[in-house]
Amino acid sequence: MPQRFVSRDTVGSLLPSGKSVLAAISPRSNSLAVITSSREGSGPIRFVQWDDIPDSDVQFFAESYVTFKGLQEMAFRQEEEVIPLASTQSIEFCYRALRLYCDHVQDQLDRLAGGTPFNEEAYVHYAAVFSTLYLFRTIYTSASGSVDGLLGEELLDWLNHNYVAPSTEEGVALVELEKPWLDKNFWTYITRCVLRGISQSALRFISQLDQHPSHALRRLSAYLTSLITSHPRSTEFSTEHEFLSMHRRWAAGVKQLRQEIDLLEEWDGRATGPGGAGEGEWREGIELLCGIMEGKKEALFDICDREGWGWREALGAWGVWIDVRLNREEVSAVLPLILEALPLDSTNPDEPLQTTLISYDFINSISIAKDWDLWLAAHMTDMLDKLGELQNVEESRSASIQKDPDNPLSVRSTVLLEYAEHLHTDPSLWELTLEYMGACGNDAKDQMAEILKRVSIDVETKRGKRTAAAATGGEAEAEMVEDEEEGGEGEEAAMWERWSAKVDKIISVCKDYGLNEAIVSVCKSVAQVLVRNRAYGRAIPYCVMARDSRAVGRIADLLLEEYITKGADEFCKQVAAIPPQFLPTAGSLEGGINGTADIFTARLQFLSRYADFHAMYGRGEKKDAARFLVMLLSSGLVPRWWRGVVLLDAAGMLEDEELLITVDDAYELLRHLEEIYMRAEQGSAAEYLGALEKMMGGKPSAESDALGQLEVVRLALARYLARCSTVSGASEYGVDYY
Q1: Which of 47, 172, 198, 438 could form a disulfide with 193 if both were Cys (CB 3.0 to 4.6 A apart)?
Q2: Where is composition skewed (Acidic residues) in this entry (predicted)?
């Protein structure tokens, strides 16, 4: 698609030049068709899509929906059981759901990592999504369902899991050195290991200081080893009280380290005593480690700023080294202190989003997420709603969340609908689109109805392909298609099963949400598709469901057309495919035919009876078949345009050696024959001779040919009546001898 059809400067001259641009929006996806038109003719049609879903995202969206659906079911049960949103049970369930969401993102990362070619941009994006979702889970939920406990270890776990440091390469480089303390990264590496709680790696290199020539450093390294080894972690204690008591005792040991540092005689940063000169700078490293252990935020800010580790490093270490009492209520107050010293990079969308989440700024969090990743925005907003966090912000919603300031939708519904519209880009995701819309309740009923009406329900059967082939290439091509598909009945049955399941799903969704008008529209569309594929029996239930009696009548006419073009066997096969509940039960020959039926199946009665007639005749029950045919004509079920065909059927049976009907029956046939002649003379030939004319090929002489066929019937009746008048025992047929 070109960037533009006409420049903005010359758009005013478009119409005077006789040119125009026409566009049509696709009802099935976020796309439109555009065409240029002029007096000389039209240009090519170009298709434009204003949204896009990469193929690599489809599986991710589908898998994560399963978790979303489970969360909605949980919320529904909680509402029924009157369980508070912010209850321990609710928080615990949300935590598990968020873990599953994280697993889905991790699976997506694994797929991207193994993709060929490797999509680095997508991988980096989803890594940031994973980190943000992990942080959301850490701040707003917990595995125990309680959000009142200490937060430090959980934030450190988030940091270590998503921003791995120090790197393995850094450690390997130091291990290979005989005197690693001489490397400029030695103390930086140890400090970061300490901050990250990776004590074993830090102790490994601190232990090598036993070989350092400085007696003072060796003494201080012993203190460091003891303090790092004994550093209490909240996860190691069953109660918060036990942890804080142990931490106070440990902090007393840190004071001893500070005293040892203060007692050193020389502070030139070099080793003291024999052999100490030239053995590396260590005073700053020791001072920094001691400051961090003392809980000095300045020391933490200094190393994070100097090394470019950023605000996340400081946040992750804060609750372990600076303020071990840090909890979820306090973290929002700590963040401004960190950001003042270590500003975020606003060019990375995940950083502003993460800081607004930590600050409990829900409106801005959702707004940023919407602009960055709609999947994350939708599932994060839904989770905030499940946790009860959006209850206090509905009245003060930011206009940035709404498409229209007068939009009555809730924040959750607004974001979920935007995500659903994004899914609508890919027609194959129609079920997900509807499910996310359905999660908005009545807010999305209108949109759902429009999508349901336009879900692709096309199907191509072998019969339909043969019909199309015959229409375009003649019978030879149709036979070739038939030969190619020979033996594929199993595949077609499976195709129908899948198709029916899809249609049933569409109608089920309509019923679930009370979309009655959509049900009618969908059923009409389904019936049209089936009729195009000559699956008339399958189409009838949908016509009835749509209360479309005219469509049922049309199908009845088409089935009779099958008789004309394909013969009696194909006609009977098609009638047999009609579900039994839409056909009348077999009539009694003695009691006549029951003519009662609802308006939707009345037109089908004749088809069923006519097929019954052919079945009787095929079984050799000629007498019953003949009498049944007369009764059928007398019942009024036979369409006017088809009566001539029935009379021809009867004429053939009148030539049988056996007298199959009574004289009264013969005169009844004659009465119907004379009525057709009379109506034809009155100008209603088409109404009464339509079927016969089609059998004659629709030629200009079709009417006269049809009347000629009826002359055959007249002659057969005359001969039959003559036979009845001469046969012995003719009284059985209504003839008395005197």
Answers
A1: 198
A2: 476-489
Range of 39's domain? 8-49
What's residue 737's pLDDT? 34
Contact 358, 139 (CB under 8 A): yes
Mean pLDDT value of segment 643-671: 92
Q: What is the distance between the alpha carbons of residues 382 and 71, in angstroms, rounded to a whole number? A: 9
Q: Render pLDDT for 408-421 as a digit per residue (tens, 0 to 9).
A: 678 999 999 999 99
Give CA–CA dist 146/163, Å, rounded: 26
Tell me, yes or no, whether 169 and 308 share the same domain: yes
Q: Mind listing the pLDDT tens digit for each residue in 84-97? A: 888 899 999 999 99
Percent of the chain scoring above 90 in pLDDT:
65
CB 676 within 8 A of CB 650: no
User: Are both 419 and 309 inside the same structural domain?
Assistant: no
Here the tokens at position 572 are 């009977």
> Cβ neighbours of residue 314 under 8 Å, at least 6 residues apart?
297, 300, 301, 304, 338, 341, 342
Question: How remote is the C-alpha of 455 from its chain's centroid?
Answer: 12
Q: Is 27 inside any structural domain?
A: yes
**For residues 68 and 336, what is the distance between their CA atoms, to the nearest angstrom?**
33
The encoded tokens of residue 629 equal: 């045919």
The structural domain count of the chain equals 4
Both 207 and 294 in a single domain? yes
Weakest mean pLDDT among 115-119, 197-201, 208-212, 477-481: 477-481
- Amino acid at the residue 270: R
Same domain, 165 and 274: yes
Whether 318 and 385 map to the same domain: the answer is no
Distance CA 407, CA 422 (A): 19
| Residue 81 shares a structural domain with residue 39 | no
